[in-house]
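Ops channel
N.P.: pipeline sanity check, posting one input/output pair.
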């Protein structure tokens, strides 16, 4: 039940924040994209966002809109990985400076 509520909340947050109609978007894709967006926001805040990360998130959103759930999740996961690597870069840069 808790997982279902979390997925529904993620889907709602995704649709409200990202402008994708809730009907027709798989909750798993919505959750994956929401996680990628959150990670990208953190990387951007750290000043280390990669140029392609937001573009890939956009591609994931388009795939989700088309009902291409597997592709949307794959792209969202790729974008999240990029954001996580960008955060690692930010951490290493901070260590070098200090």
């Amino acid at each position: 039940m808790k997982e279902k509520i979390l997925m529904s909340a993620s889907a709602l947050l995704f649709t409200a924040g990202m402008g994708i109609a809730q009907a027709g978007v798989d909750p798993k894709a919505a959750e994956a994209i929401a996680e990628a967006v959150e990670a990208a926001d953190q990387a951007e805040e750290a000043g280390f966002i990669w140029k392609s990360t937001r573009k890939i998130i956009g591609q994931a959103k388009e795939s989700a809109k088309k009902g291409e759930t597997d592709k949307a999740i794959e792209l969202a996961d790729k974008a999240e990985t990029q954001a996580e690597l960008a955060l690692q870069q930010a951490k290493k840069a901070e260590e070098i400076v200090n």
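N.P.: looks fine end to end. The chain has one domain: 2-97.
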